[in-house]
Amino acid sequence: MGVETVSTVISLVPILTSVLLLLALRMPSHMVSVAVWALVGALCMLPTPFHMVWSQCADAMSYAFISALPIVTVLAFGALLYQVLSCTGAIDVLARRVSSSFTDKVLSALFISGALGTGFEWASGFGLGIVMVAPLYRRLGWSSAQIVQLSLLTQFWIPWGAYGASSMATSELTGLPLGVLASDSALVAWPLAFLYLCLIAVIASGWKGIRGRWTIVLLSAAVMGTVTWAVSRWIEPTIAGGCAAVCLGAMLWCFTRAYPSDERIKDEACEPELSMWRVVLPYAFVVFYLATVDGIPGLHQRLAKWMTWSMRNHGVHVSFFLNPGLALFLACLLAVALLGRGGHRWSLCVQSVRNTYRQIWRPILATVAFMATSSWMADSGMFHVLGSDLARPGAVAVLLTSPVLAALGGFMVGTSTASNAMLAPLQVQMAHGSHLPITILAVGQNVASAQTAYIAPSRIAFATSFVNEQGKEGQYLRRLAPWSLVAVGWVAFAEFLVWAWHV
Predict the structure, then answer these.
(1) What is the pTM (predicted TM-score) of this model?
(2) pLDDT tens digit string along 154-171?
(3) How much of the chain is in helix, strand and coil states, percent to nearest 5?
(4) How far apart, in whole angstroms, are the C-alpha atoms of residue 74 and residue 363?
(5) How confident is the model at residue 268 (pLDDT cuts 50, 70, 90)?
(6) Are 63 and 314 in contact (CB under 8 A)?
(7) Which residues in 478-488 are b (16+ Cβ under 10 Å) and which e?
């Protein structure tokens, strides 16, 4: 066996191990991430073709941790904000208002899964959209099959979930500016918004029910795509998903207001304990803060000079004041002040922190470990070997392989953030080896990984647990997998179109 063959086999070991542990042994993604991290560490320490000295290992680890810091803070404080709103009853107020305002099943599903679920996924990430909408669908009397599928479809806008955490990971690891990556991803994902919103409408009311709703579905997809692209390109990518969810929700809300019902008016007569402005103000503050610090050039440049950590040899910079995590933290304080009762604010903080810890420690561990794994594989040359081998057949083969790898990663780990952290450097090496623009494969990785993350076994098991449908995960996987394959096929086709345009 030649040296090149041995190098290729060793480079494949971490990826194959991930597949084995996740799919065959069904280990949780955070445990797999640590196991693969340790495996790659051993391969880099042992006298293999990818041996690294201690200083190289430490440098790669430092880069991984600094790159992961913005993502970790966004995840942590985004989840904390959700928990504060949940513990104060603000989320229940929003749920009651929604359930009393929509009587048409298609419009209700579009609002709950397309706007509300996407909004919560943007605000918290990692399946929180499922948590929010599944109980709401149960309250509205939907069937178990509808609840599972519609709650899973809250995840279709994942590249902008958790304040764009998955896009941030791809941007950090490919060197592509976040605004360019997010706006180009929005263009590729635009037709997928129509695909999934149509699917939501079909699940809600069947093919007959959607016939009279084509216009509103098409308009909803246009709103999501346009707002996400515009905000990603000209304002701030981390708030693009939230802005799209708000605009879609506002449009659907206005549409249903044009057709009032006695039932809705009667329900609205019961005023909630908390006013809606208090519920939405913390999220509005996040949008205002990020739009201000990024939209005013002078302020942006001044804040970028203060409390910024850098690794010059890797070109990575982390700013304290420009980090969306700071805006989320301040929004948490605002939510406690607005929604917490006088003598119970401290207990509210303690309970919210405890709930947040239980919610996020696993995805954070998986993200950091996969980013560290990717950093070691990149610095040791493993990704270079794999990228060269995969690029050898030519650009066409790479364009076919790239979205399939991204989709496999999303399905394995159940989150596009960890998938992008694991596979983005490999996409860079494939781009270099095949002389393709990095942008094409980076965008493909960012979008394709999201098309299978929502049907990952862990996500389906999560959704079925809310309606006591455990053991039927395979049934729902078979129902949704064809749509995911169509979406991945579209990403591959879009890559070919962009490549043909450049050629």
Answers:
(1) 0.69
(2) 878 877 776 677 787 788
(3) 80, 0, 15
(4) 12
(5) very low
(6) yes
(7) eebeebbeebb
C-alpha 237/C-alpha 183 separation (Å) is 8
b vs e for 404-437, b when ≥16 Cβ sit within 10 Å of the residue's Cβ?
Answer: bbbbbbbbbbbbbbbbbbbbbbbbbbbbbbbebe
Are 447 and 160 in contact by the 8 Å Cβ rule? The answer is: no
Q: Model confidence at 333, in pLDDT bands (50, 70, 90)?
A: very high
| Per-residue pLDDT at 218 exceeds 70 | yes
Sign (positive or negative) of CA dihedral 334, 339, 342, 343: negative
Alpha helices in 296-380 (DSSP H): 297-305, 324-339, 345-380
Query: Which tokens belong to 180?
Result: 């360019």
Number of Cβ within 10 Å of residue 146's Cβ equals 18
DSSP-assigned letters across all residues of 184-237? HHHHHHHHHHHHHHHHHHHHHHHHHHHGGGHHHHHHHHHHHHHHHHHHHHHT-G
Nearest Cα neighbor of 93 from 248, 223, 236, 270 is 270
Does residue 426 register a pLDDT over 60? yes
Mean pLDDT for the chain overall: 77
* Beta pairing, strands 316-319 & 308-311: antiparallel
Q: And the tokens for 390?
A: 């995969």
- Residue with more model confidence, 471 or 237: 237
Q: How many CB atoms lie within 10 A of CB 327?
A: 28
Residues 440-471: pLDDT tens digits? 888 888 888 888 878 776 677 667 766 666 55
Q: How far apart are CA 82 and CA 91, in angstroms?
A: 8
| C-alpha–C-alpha distance, residues 361 and 349, integer Å | 18
Residues 271 and 77: their CA atoms lie apart, in Å, by 30
Q: 317 forms bridges with which residues in the sheet? A: 310
